[in-house]
């Protein structure tokens, strides 16, 4: 089909017509970079440029996926116009629509803004100036759901196998779900009762507590995991993914025992790039399903999730008298004000305040009126 016919039927901007060969092409196939005198003479797609730039900065896979999704929505919102043709007015229009008709929260709008700022500043080299004050989504103050110690025991008691062990680590160490399932053997110090969390939220390392109650179950789990790893090695497998720079420096580290996942997946897969037989870590959705079932079976009547175990860890430490700075460090919060939210859910009743009504002499009242 000629570029003229496709242009009439698909309404593709003139500068993208040479890249279009069929009206059945996907929208993102039209998003070739616009050739300008200041733009590289490259046919690399915009999304690939964006993702390569983020990987170069060692941004997390989840951040890369989130930013990519926002750039897609931004371009579709403006009818497939190339972002280089858009500017501050179009960015404002998109972000304003998100909090209006899109009805997104303030944090969601902030993530979309961060994605657009990254695109314009680091990929297109067109910093957005004069963006000014934006209409912001409402930021509701929500207290975290917290379980009592009895409820934690009931829920974890309904988990089985590796899910119970992982649940105990999430609660006992105050970890996020992804921090727990991406633990490697080398991250455990069973003698010192410590867990080293690598590249947690914000790409920060931290140390948290390893519950003494899980040490013996962990030894058993490690023995079983190591036996499976040895079997993998005997079958020319046993590889795991490790950070790129280390993989190049130590090419055999991916088969070594210390680098193995603490919670490996049950199935192996062949890496498309290297051709190696690898194991990924346990998928987060498996633990989420197990947790949902355990909460339902326990009958506690709360909307609890894996992250609720982290909330409960922080709250129970504060109730036990640990200072908030210690809890902040264990949780990996950058700002102590984030940790302060747990002071509002302590098991003290009414924020620990004694009601003035408790000081009244009510002995002469036979009953309360209807």
Question: If you had to describe this structure to a student in words, what would you say it looks like?
Answer:
The structure is a single chain. This protein folds into 2 domains: 31-123, Orthogonal Bundle (DNA polymerase, domain 1), CATH 1.10.150.130; 141-349, Intergrase catalytic core (hpI Integrase, Chain A). Helix content is 43%, strand content 6%. It has helices at residues 3-10, 46-56, 61-77, 88-99, 106-123, 149-157, 161-173, 177-181, 215-234, 244-249, 284-298, 306-319, 324-331, 336-339, and strands at residues 188-189, 194-197, 206-209, 264-270, 277-281. It has a 3-stranded antiparallel sheet. It has a two-stranded antiparallel sheet with strand order 4-5.
**So, the CATH homologous superfamily of the largest domain?**
Intergrase catalytic core
Shape category: flat
What is the strand tally? Answer: 5
Oligomer: single chain
CATH uppermost class of the largest domain: Mainly Alpha
Structural class, by secondary structure, is mainly alpha
The domain count comes to: 2
CATH architecture of the largest domain: Orthogonal Bundle
Largest sheet: 3 strands, antiparallel
How many alpha or pi helices?
Answer: 14
Indicate the low-confidence ranges by residue numbers: 1-44
Distance between the termini: 82 Å
Question: Order of helices and strands, N to C?
Answer: HHHHHHHHEEEHHEEHHHH
Sheet with most strands: strand arrangement: 1-2-3
Radius of gyration: 26 Å
Helix fraction, binned, reads 40-55%
